[in-house]
Amino acid sequence: MNLGKKTRYRYGRIIVVLIIIIVISFLGGYFVSQSHPIIIANNGSGTISEIYEILEDKWVNPNEEIDFDQAAAAGLVAGLNDIYTSYMTPEETDSFNSTMDGSLTGIGVRFVASSKGALISEIIDNSPAQESGLKAGDIIIACNDTSLAGLTSTEIRDIITGSSGTVASLQVKYLNQVRQVEITRQYIETASIASIREINGVAVGYLEITTFGSQTAMEVKSGLEMFKSAEIETIVIDLRSNGGGLLSACNDILDMFIGQGEVTYSISTNDNPSKEYTSAGNVVDVFKKGYILTDENTASAAEIMTGALIYDLGYQTVGTTTFGKGIAQVSIPLTDGSTLKYTYAKWYMPNGENIHKTGIEPDYSVASYDALSFVNLNIEAAIEVDTVDVDNVKPVQEALEFLGYSCRTDGYLNQETIRQLNKFEKENGLDQSNSLTVETYEAVISKVLNNISLEENDQVYNELQKLIK
After folding, report:
1. I need a labelling partner for 48 at 20 to 30 A (CA). Which of 90, 107, 115, 202 fits?
2. What is the pLDDT of residues 410-469, one digit of tens each?
3. What is the phi/psi pair of residue 271, to 5°?
4. Is the pLDDT of residue 15 over 60?
5. Counts for the chain of helices (H) and strands (E), in that order
6. Beta-bridge mates of residue 283
7. Could you give the CA distance from residue 290 to residue 205 in angstroms, rounded to a whole number?
8. Rounded distance, CA 83 to CA 75, Å?
9. d(CA 329, CA 333)
10. CA angle (24 as vertex; 18, 30 as ends), nearest 5
11. Angle at CA 173, nearest 5°, toward 169 and 174?
12. Phi, psi of 296 (to 5 degrees)
């Protein structure tokens, strides 16, 4: 087949694929709901045909390889302008499903990609990372002799994770010190961790739920049974940074707390404007006092759980206002292993309130410091004195303030800020400079992450301790 025939064949295939997608989208929209004009309307078909004719004759493919099926599907979904509706490739689907399981095989860290490698933001309890002495603020710069500098989060994850029982040989940097850490990867449960703590002489059941996955309800049940055996009367549920997950898992967990027949939440779909969900009443234990810890990343199913425990059991909340995601999504597997996740409902708390874009305000408001929420960890060059840079300089100034170095916090890199940076550099064994270097930038953030990971610096937990007597 010559080049011309190959080109005609390729573009002919594109048109066929897109026609099929349009037809499937029309039928899918019809069967899901006849009130989705954005999906079933076909007024732009002439424009679509015109575009494809131009592409067939004129377009030069700048890509070495492209999957037209996936590209067309992703484009169709992206055009809906709904950040919660997405198309996932088979590879992305596998990663998504692993997250929903609430478990992983690896070393047990949460991190963000930085210019040097993987900046650890959190160490998972009872993980190989915790046992090895890794801590928040460490930067993993290499794994098994492979540099992690400049890689994406996905690329770093693929290198660090591996089969259970294999060894990850890590080069780890903190401030100006580099050390070697050998960690044996293990299967780690990350969805829920239960423990019994003593606060002000009171035995407290502490339940941390990081996601609502397929195994979460079973893990929570084990924790509640442990609390019951210890005759625990006060429970703390930590939902900070819990972005949600499976609604079915949330339902199963609420059943373990709330009596039969009590409304836990309701949803509104195109087919049913008001459907109430009630507890099955599979209560494991009853607590005299209950507290929920929340932050700005507590979202979706975590907010559903929070609302139900507030209104049905009178639990009190401590922390910051939740994210405010009052809508729900469903995931539909497609024939090629990919997945379509789309918004299908609004949900309401037992009092009838929808908290979308407003969130749930805490009973006890406590400001928390998030070192990663506003920081660009991929700056490529030093920032010179007398520069105004709100996006990069201001966060570092605020971080310096948090660490006890007094300076302005408006984003203007003046000489006083440089003096405070030099003081930080000197005290932490770093080279001093008359600019904000990449090295110092990451060191400041590392130091903050390490400090806020310490229990004594957890302001929300400190407020909780005042309440428990």
Report:
1. 90
2. 999 999 999 999 999 999 999 999 999 999 999 999 999 999 888 888 999 999 999 999
3. -90, -25
4. no
5. 14, 23
6. none
7. 10
8. 13
9. 13
10. 140
11. 140
12. -70, -10
